[in-house]
Amino acid sequence: MNQLLNNLKFHKPFFKLNTAQIEILKDPVDFYVNLHKGIKNAQKRIVWSTLYIGNGNMEEFLIESLSNQQRRFEQLRISLLMDYYRGTRRDKKDHTTPLDHYLYLRMQNLYAQNMKLGLMRHPFLPQLANMFEESASREIFNVHHMKWYIFDNRVILTGANLQEQYFINRQDRYMVFHEANEIADYLDDAQSALLQHAYYVDFDSNSKFDPLRAQPFKRQQYFKEFHQTWKIFKFSYKEAAEIKSDDEEYKEQQQAKVQNKEEENDDTQQEQEEEELSQEEMLQFYEKDLIVEQKIQERKEQAKLILNKSFNKGDVQNIINRLEKALYKDEERELDEGEECTVLITLHIPYLQTDEDKLVFMRILEHLDQFTQVTWASGYMNFTKTIINFVNNCKTDIKFVTASPGANGFHKAGKAKSFIPLLYRNFELAINKPIFEYKKNGWTFHTKGFWAELQDGSTMTIIGSSNYAERSEKRDNEIQAYIFTQCPMFKQDLKKEQNQLFNYAEKITKEEILNDPEIKINWKIKLLSKIFKSMM
């Protein structure tokens, strides 16, 4: 492990954690519960980066909780970042967009000045992309695919988006990093830098507008400044923190002086204000807070109805109990019972020449022969030629897990997209290692990850947003976390996570793929695979 880490020294910063600080979540409901738990406990910051948020009741329940938390903590800062095209795609049924939730959140909020909303869009896309207004076709060129969900110093890294399926029956990976203040600060800084180069929403809360027609997005023109903004990440975290503190120290001193003056008059002013506050105004205040609580309860009941469609009554009650526990009961977690681990965060933004993840992952692949065993998962397995060459020429025991055509996210996605699962099935033929296809009734497979055991007995895993596919490398914005440790307990937890996937996966051979009577790989599929490979 040390030899491998030495070969990755070119990338900084490295974060040191205790493995007990990392909690591996099991399923989509765990993910949903932990989002609510994070909101409930956040008092300083909530920082989300995602592809999009859905329009269902479970998502609205989440947004209501977010809004209510900021009402309770005036100082709570909310930063939201998502993809421009996916965020403004209009639903054909109810004609809403994912952006509408965020607009509602800000318009309902008492402290909107503490909220930032940005939408990432490729700055150099051809005009052709704008011809597909409100359509999913625009997303072919590039999307902001990074996912992190920060609540104060708690960080959730996953490949999941904020949409109903990802909360119920779309399997992904999820890790919660507890009390990981350095990682939280790092990703918070990254999001702040990205927000400076994103479209941002600026509107009068009293006005109603169509975000696709009006001009709420004000693009920052100078993307070259991005690299200067991110110079801080070329240093170690400690050095970066010192650089930040130089700028923040003066601000804090000035704020302290102002605060001291304000506190001198606070007591007398508060007494006067309390006397002046009429009974009618008090009632209005509590009525507003009661309305928010009622909305949360309504959303929770609606979420329960959604769960009833996918689970039996016993499961639904169990899920609701878990949710209630997350919202109303505090849990303590022992954070010093594990062993040290090293965490490496990489970002990948092709159009900004930020290819950290590609550089690090290629270095990992160069040392594949140091691994004794590897499990590699991708919901959309369409590897680049470079990756395929590394895989097929190494002697390491590698097992791949991917979605079966029926568990592919594009299964039953409509006539225009119905052929996509067949293309991914065809891409499997390029791999000369064992492949397992995930099949679970009513579920789709969105998991992506890398689990490896090294010759010295240590282990590593990669969790993030990348599918290791052609478009992951050449088109989309991605984030990955590389975790290295010798902790046997954490190694056991990772093994359980892998077993959970293999419990619903069946090995498939090339012969079975080629001779499948229901899913035929004909010349049309092979031709389409070549045409669309770089977009998938």
UniProtKB/TrEMBL annotation:
Residues 251-262 have a biased composition (Basic and acidic residues). Residues 246-279 are annotated as: Disordered. GO terms for cellular component: mitochondrion. The keyword Signal does not apply. Pathway: Phospholipid metabolism; phosphatidylglycerol biosynthesis; phosphatidylglycerol from CDP-diacylglycerol: step 1/2. Its main location: mitochondrion. Keywords: ATP-binding, Lipid biosynthesis, Lipid metabolism, Mitochondrion, Nucleotide-binding, Phospholipid biosynthesis, Phospholipid metabolism, Repeat, Transferase. It comes from the Eukaryota. Signal peptide: none annotated. The keyword Lipid metabolism applies. Residues 263-279 have a biased composition (Acidic residues). It catalyses: a CDP-1,2-diacyl-sn-glycerol + sn-glycerol 3-phosphate = a 1,2-diacyl-sn-glycero-3-phospho-(1'-sn-glycero-3'-phosphate) + CMP + H(+). GO terms for biological process: cardiolipin biosynthetic process. GO terms for molecular function: ATP binding; CDP-diacylglycerol-glycerol-3-phosphate 3-phosphatidyltransferase activity. It is found in: Mitochondrion. Residues 140-166 form the PLD phosphodiesterase domain. SMART domains: PLDc. PROSITE patterns: PLD. Its EC number is 2.7.8.5. InterPro entries: PGS1 (IPR016270), PLipase_D/transphosphatidylase (IPR001736). Functions in the biosynthesis of the anionic phospholipids phosphatidylglycerol and cardiolipin. Belongs to the CDP-alcohol phosphatidyltransferase class-II family. This is CDP-diacylglycerol--glycerol-3-phosphate 3-phosphatidyltransferase.
